[in-house]
Amino acid sequence: MTEPVVTDIDILIIGAGPVGMTLHLALAAGGQPSLLLDRNSPNSAQDDPRALALAHGARQLLEQINAWPARAATPIETIHVSQKDGFGRTLINCTDYALPALGYVVRYRDLAAALAGQLAPAARLDGVEVLTIAPGEGHVTVSLRQAGTLRTIRTKLLVHAEGTPGDDPAVTVSDYDQHAVIAEITPQPGHNHCAWERFTPDGPLALLPLGNEYSVVFTLPPAKADAVMAMDDSAFTAALQKQFGQRLRFAQPGPRSRFPLALRLRDTLVEGHEVWIGNTAQTLHPVSGQGFNLGIRDAWQLAETLLNNGLDQASLAAYAASRRLDRRGSALFTDRIVRAFSNDCGPLKLARGLGLLALDLCPPARHFVAKRMIWGARAWP
After folding, report:
1. E-assigned strands of the chain?
2. What is the full DSSP assignment across 353-378?
3. Which residue of 6, 317, 322, 357 shows the fewest CB atoms closer than 10 Å?
4. Mind listing the pLDDT tens digit for each residue in 58-95?
5. How distant, in Å, are the alpha carbons of 206, 260, 374 from that of 220?
6. What is the pLDDT of residues 225-247, one digit of tens each?
7. How far apart are the C-alpha atoms of 134 and 185, rounded to whole Å?
């Protein structure tokens, strides 16, 4: 049997989703080639039902690689934060920050298409099954199969960007015992570019403006998620209306999907000549829409570090250190919000209401929170 030919490259990226493609394009803009591998076909993103909440900071980064899907993005000009059956609310408006929007809502498939449109023809290998990953002295060897053909790639740096990890002893998992039911629904009257984060005892309920509709992230315990998924459209609309309240009316819901929710944090981002970014490094609760934005910042910071400092161990250590504040801070922020607001405890409800009221009445505190949401650790302090 003929041995597979060994190909030597500088940087190999496993995972050609938006985070992996962002890294590849950011590296290419600085003159550093890399190769993307993906187990799926290029058209698989068309079947992804998710909508992504992208902060204005993410737009700024994606524009630099000509991959901002302007026509497909719906701006979020105002965010309304409140709790069900409790007082206190906070309003965050883009005019306070001299921005056109606080963030944007984009369908996953539209963002993936915008990024893929910037790739060179030979930038990615699709339909790839990774067979083995073998660390070596100064390199990593990856064996793979594509269309029945075996191939071996030896790389100076292997980047993992393939998505949420499975069972991995290097990843700490904290299950929220919640599922996110997602759908699109028509608001009456229109959304006026306002996003809602509505905290309920079952979990956060988010409404994100998308075109003329809202993308709904309906967080529920698993048994209630089962029931909501089994409802007809009329019953689902009524359940959503009951959970949200009467400030808006809803009609014409689209297809529903669901995802289990957990906090997953990789203990270390770098091992030898391997580095983990995006959901392989951390998977957050969707409250406040921080997870994907954090992954985009991972990719951008890694590209900047590699372009400025090279591919050696010191450069990788510098990258890991530079991401510590952003990723740990974002994980702590989302985790504490979910655990503090996902209950019906009377004293906690009172404390939450006072906190929301104080945030609304104290602009410096509100601006601190808003800027972290828009730019992450880049806004520090």
Report:
1. 6-14, 35-37, 51-55, 74-76, 78-83, 89-93, 103-107, 124-125, 128-136, 139-146, 149-160, 171-188, 194-200, 203-210, 213-220, 249-251, 257-266, 270-271, 274-276, 282-283
2. HHHHHHHHH-HHHHHHHHHHHHHGGG
3. 6
4. 999 999 999 999 999 999 999 999 888 777 789 999 99
5. 12, 10, 26
6. 999 999 999 999 999 999 998 88
7. 47
- The rounded distance, in Å, linking the Cα atoms of 207 and 195 is 6
Q: Is 217 helix (H, G, I), strand (E, B) or coil?
A: strand
Q: Which of 336, 326, 266 minimizes the C-alpha distance to 296?
A: 326
Name the helix (H) or strand (E) containing 108.
helix 108-116
Peptide bond before 381: cis, by omega within 30 degrees of 0? yes
Select from 257, 186, 187 the least CA-distant residue to 218. 257
Q: In this structure, is the dihedral angle defined by the CA atoms of residues 159, 273, 157 and 299, taken in order, positive or negative? A: positive
Q: For residue 35, give both structure tokens.
A: 């190769």
Query: How buried is residue 201: exposed, middle or buried, by Cβ count under 10 Å (0-12/13-18/19+)?
Result: middle
Task: Specify the CATH architecture of the domain 6-50+109-170+262-335.
Answer: 3-Layer(bba) Sandwich (3.50)
Q: Are 253 and 185 in contact (CB under 8 A)?
A: yes
Domains of the chain, residue spans: 6-50+109-170+262-335
Specify the pairing of strand 78-83 against strand 194-200.
Answer: parallel
